[in-house]
Amino acid sequence: MRPWFELPPPRVLAYILALLGLLVGVEALLWRLSHHQPFSWLDVGFWAVLAFIGTRSRVQLPFDASMSHLFVVALAIAVYLPGWLAPLVVFLASVDRKFGRPDYPWYKELFNKTQHGLATGLSALVWYFFTTYGRFLGGEVGIYVSQGLGIGLASVVFVFINISAVAYVIHLVSGASFRKIWFENYSWLWKSCLILAPVGLLLAKSYTTPILFGWGGFTVLFLMLLLYYSRYYWDEKVKLEEAFDNTVEVLMRTIDAKDPYTRLHSERVAAIVADMAERMGFDNADLKRITYAARIHDIGKVAIPDSVLLKPSKLSAEEFDLVKSHANRGVEVLRPVLPFVAKGVKQVILYHHERWDGNGYPERLQGEQIHPWARLVSLADSYEAMTAGRSYTQAKSPQVALDEIIALAGRQFDPEAVKVFEQAWLENPIWKDREVFLRAYSSLLPSSELPLPSSPEPVPATLPVSS
Question: What does the pLDDT read at residue 414?
């Protein structure tokens, strides 16, 4: 167990101290601008408690990300309290749930407090200038416009500072590209931030216009109750989606496990597709989606009788037509949830047996008519089948399978996809040889039971983000 008081790497410590110095500078500027504004210690205590609670309450988001309620509360604090008090309150009241644990060192807490306070201070500065000097129109309309623009820009500044601070400390610790961390993990949060920004303004305005028992705090608490209530149902939605995904994956593994020739077929296809997609520049979100699609591309086979699916001899024409129907049947199996999955997932399930020359099934699509994700899965699926073999045909060696795929470029497969596949194959990935892949993959799984799929690789995105 590492000591709580250990020092971080020198570069990280210097970075935290630089942020702390910047926070002190922003605090000094806000003091000069707003120290004359009156305030009540009751108000300060109320908002501090909300900030404390907001830091410890998180809303689960896709890809294992989470978003704390501190964002909304901090914006309300920046709007309601004098500017110099806003970052101070957030700095002192934002206490991470892990604080005090042996595995949570002091410098992480200091970093989180500092970047939260800095983001709040700069947001308060933006709000102050917009509402003081940003009146573009006269009358009440001008007030509403300046406040709307002020809260919108304040939220953008908060999110930018918050995310950039965490992305850079990750860069210092891991050596990963700052730009890659920022854009692949956090850029998708902007729309959510802009939507939530008016909620912060609403909380602040509600506090000044009490509608319950003469104190605005009751109004704010009522609105926060609604926010937490919606959070509960969002959590349940996320859990339901995860349960569905786990159920689908168990079905896929059950299908693959029925036949020794298709054991871990879907996992190997997904590994090939993920390798190709990464080389083709897929962003992190689409990389996860196409990998998921590859893992469930044969979900329609649950509707095919085992007597046909596991037949040891070559299929008759009628039986082959029945097997080919698994593409359409897969879409039918997932129809209740199709509105909630990426469009490409449906395209993969439906079109992963289409051919570049138009001689595939079920719709005989040709060339660019075939969804790009389906083209990658088609190639990976074919390579896996070639090197795995079947009861009625011998498995091909990796080299023979590669040569056949290259020969079929422009006929069965997308020529560009074939080039990417060849480049990946030449680097001897683990999926190249089926037996190597089976040994490596099986060693990670418990042998006594069929395991549930592991969670997707987490995206370290929280709002406000915590290191």
Answer: 96
Count of CB atoms within 10 A of residue 241's CB?
14
Residue whose structure tokens are 């795929």: 405
Q: Which two tokens stand for residue 404?
A: 């056949």
Q: Which residue has the tokens 């709580």?
A: 4
Do the bridges between strand 462-463 and strand 66-68 make them parallel or antiparallel, or are there none, so unpaired? parallel
3-state secondary structure of 225: helix
Residue bearing the bigger pLDDT, 310 or 85: 85
C-alpha to C-alpha distance for 217 and 213, rounded to whole angstroms: 10
Cα 247 to Cα 241, 276, 388, 450, 453, distances in angstroms = 10, 27, 26, 12, 9
Buried b (16+ CB within 10 A) or exposed e, 287-304: bbbbbbbbbbbbbbbbeb
Cβ–Cβ < 8 Å for 71, 463: yes
Nearest to 227 by CA among 258, 257, 265, 196: 196
Extract the tokens encoding 89. 């309150």
Pairing label, strands 58-60, 66-68? antiparallel
Which pLDDT does position 32 carry in this prediction?
93
Class of domain 239-442: mainly alpha
Structural contact between residues 413 and 375, judged by C-beta atoms closer than 8 angstroms = yes
Give the pLDDT confidence of 369-409 residue by residue, as tens digits.
Answer: 999 999 999 999 999 999 987 766 788 999 999 999 999 99
Q: Give bridge partners of residue 413 from the DSSP assignment.
A: 409
Report domain extents, the chain: 10-209, 239-442
**What is the spatial distance between Cα 203 and Cα 214, in angstroms, rounded to a whole number?**
16
* pLDDT higher than threshold 90 for residue 138: no
For residue 84, give the H/E element and its range: none
Q: Residues 277, 282, 284, 287: what is their CA dihedral angle, to the nearest 10 degrees?
A: -30
CATH number 1.10.10.60 given to 10-209: no
Query: What is the residue type of 229?
Result: Y
Is the whole model's pTM more than 0.90, yes or no? Answer: no
DSSP-based three-state secondary structure for 104: coil
Measured in Å, how far apart are the chain's first and last C-alpha atoms?
19
Minimal CA–CA distance to 61: which of 363, 467, 406, 456?
456
**Comparing C-alpha atoms, which of 161, 185, 105 is closest to residue 462?**
185
Q: Which range is least confidently modeled, 42-56, 107-121, 168-182?
A: 168-182
Place of tokens 């809303």: 59
pLDDT of 464 over the 60 cut: no
Single-letter residue type at 62: P
Average pLDDT over residues 297-323: 85
